[in-house]
Amino acid sequence: MRQYHQQLHEWVSLPKDRLDLNQHPLQQSLDLGGSFSVICMWDGAVCADSHSTGGLILKDERDFVVFVLGLFFEVMDDPLVVETIALREAIQWCRDIGLAQVQFEGDIEILIDKINAKDARGSRVGAILEEILHTLDIHRGFNV
């Protein structure tokens, strides 16, 4: 129970958005500009009321959660589109805060296969995939 309460307290105290980063900066061990590597787990989901949600969790080298960010998308009912946009947002967020080495992990194999094959053709998310591939080309330390 003590461990549960400690983890709950740590989760509640994490920064939840960019404004909250000013009050609760990322842990000092997180080197935002160096060769430090973090894991960014992303996910997206279509909800029953025709909106969609997603988010990302950023973990450090000790596997500790150091940041969470929730996403909300209006009127989207295609799970592939939602997952792709959630990944794009995660990549852009990590780029914007200056991370140099990020391993992105998600649970949608078809999207990950397309990215690893560098193939945006023949997909209803082709334009978003091209944007993701372009960003990954520029930021060589980002891997999906």
Automatic annotation (TrEMBL):
Pfam families: RVT_3. Residues 43-136 form the RNase H type-1 domain. GO terms for molecular function: nucleic acid binding; RNA-DNA hybrid ribonuclease activity. InterPro entries: RNase_H-like_EbsB-rel (IPR052929), RNaseH_domain (IPR002156). This is RNase H type-1 domain-containing protein. It comes from Linum trigynum. The lineage of its organism: Eukaryota, Viridiplantae, Streptophyta, Embryophyta, Tracheophyta.
